[in-house]
Write a structure and sequence with these properties.
Blueprint lengths: L1 H33 L19 H4 L7 H32 L5 H13 L2 H14 L8 H25 L3 H9 L4 H30 L2 H6 L6 H8 L7 H33 L1
Length: 272
């Protein structure tokens, strides 16, 4: 009876986990399917009509879509780099050092994550207008806004990785006559890097996907989410699903490569 209960419990958890994963990825499967949909001549865009490669062969066919995609990617890349660097430095300061106001700073880090986007977006717009940038809203103002709201997510992610780091590894390296610089680059940074990579991927996704804050501070600049929103008034082109599927596959490859690299490093360390 006990064995039967263990078997049911073990397989039940696996089954529930698989069902949850399937439920989470159903939208991605639908988007991937619709990227091959020939919707020409049909008003119901999300009813599969016929299989076609045309959407993938002509991803830039809707006028302005690839331009908006380029703008979103550029903003997301720059925002990710800046937010990851600043957030990583802030994480090391919060975890490794004691200073006056540290507790308050820890609290303030969480506020942008808990603040509704409409509040943050309108506040940033008011700030830009007060600073005399109301007539020049565009790429720069979007970039500043994205860096600000991505920063909190980077700090929280990297700080969690740092908090779980075993300090004895660094002490052991310094006992073996490694200086602080060598200890950081050979011990600390490789151990913290998975957290930094996860934070960077999260920041890129948040920046690329954002609509509310971007819409309030974009001026005449059109990002990919804004293009999709505008297209929805007339009917979303199937090429949007192509971009969505491509971004999902790229993310999957990056995550898989990172996981494979981490396992190889762990295996090499175990062999030593």
């Amino acid at each position: 009876m006990h064995r039967a209960g263990n078997w049911i419990g073990k397989h039940l958890m696996i089954t529930l986990g698989i069902l949850v994963l399937i439920y989470m990825y159903i939208p991605n499967f639908v988007v991937a399917l619709m990227s091959f949909n020939d919707s020409s001549g049909s008003r119901n865009l999300y009813q599969f009509q016929a299989f076609t490669w045309d959407n993938w062969l002509n991803p830039c066919e809707p006028n302005g879509m690839c331009e908006s995609l380029r703008v979103s990617v550029e903003i997301a890349l720059v925002a990710t780099i800046v937010a990851t660097i600043l957030g990583t430095l802030a994480s090391f300061a919060l975890v490794r050092h004691r200073f006056e106001g540290r507790s308050t700073m820890n609290l303030l880090i969480f506020l942008p994550m808990a603040t509704p986007e409409i509040v943050m977006g309108s506040s940033l717009l008011a700030l830009f207008v007060a600073a005399g940038m109301g007539g020049s809203l565009g790429f720069v103002t979007i970039l500043i806004a994205h860096i600000l709201f991505c920063l909190s997510f980077v700090v929280v992610t990297v700080r969690t990785r740092l908090a779980g780091l075993d300090s004895n590894l660094e002490k052991a390296a310094m006992d073996l006559y490694a200086n602080e610089w060598q200890t950081f680059w050979r011990i600390t940074f490789p151990l913290v890097f998975p957290g930094i990579l996860a934070a960077a991927l999260l920041a890129f996704s948040l920046s690329f996907d954002d609509f509310i804050i971007t819409n309030l501070n974009s001026g005449t600049t059109v990002t990919f989410p804004m293009f999709v929103w505008g297209s929805a008034q007339r009917g979303i082109p199937m090429q949007v699903n192509v971009i969505g599927t491509a971004m999902f596959l790229i993310s999957l490859v990056i995550v898989a490569a990172g996981e494979i690299g981490a396992r190889r490093r762990a295996k090499m360390l175990a062999q030593r």
